[in-house]
Amino acid sequence: MVFDLDNTILQHTTDYEVIKLIEPKTIDECYYNWAKYMQKVYLKLKEQFVHLEQIRKIVESIPLNEGFLEIFEFIRNNKEKFETLIVSGSNTLYIEWLIDYHKLNDIIDGYFSNFAEQDEDMLIRISPNHVHNCPLCCEDLSQCKKKVLEEFFFKIKNLRNKDSVYSLYSAIVYVGDGSNDLCPSTLLGKNDFLFPREEFQLHKIVCGEKCNLLNCKVHPWKNGKKILEVIKNNFFPQ
Fold first, then answer.
1. Which of 72, 79, 166, 217 is deepest in the core (most CB within 10 A)?
2. Rounded CA gap, 95 and 109, in Å?
3. Which pTM was predicted?
4. Is the pLDDT of residue 129 over 80?
């Protein structure tokens, strides 16, 4: 199972909630590279004497989407059946905080995002996960999630001496909301499942002109209960 973070596991977007700390708003948005923009945000917060603990409390205060605690508890109770990843456009520091705060260390097997660490001069030092030239991922995205997953699957296949992804897993389940979740969705095959959040960008795209890019089963969701219901019905028959 692969989860996006912002507006998927969480009800809101971590970076947008942190940006609200800037008073008054004095940074123009620059969408050519989100990671570079957020570095400017952290520098400005440092100038305004914001402490790292304040940022952490904001990130931890963002509620999970309805039903996701139930999803995680189901995975915990059936852990031998699941390998669970977070692939996010946020950053690794936020994800580490949230995994600890929600006690998901035994649930999440790996996470991938922009690299981030505490820094005395910059408050948080952030750098892109990688460089990409993906035609489906717009230029402001500092990572291509498809590339992240391809590299992960390649590494795991070699470590476990398997020929293909489907000799590792019976199915891949991807849960997301944004336009940056389209590209990794094109990796999914006919036995895989894509869960786009209803009325969010990914849902609009896959129900529109880009629907021909997908070969997987598509199940829109409003809350995690819908996702869990589909998983139980398809992989845990009574």
1. 72
2. 12
3. 0.92
4. no
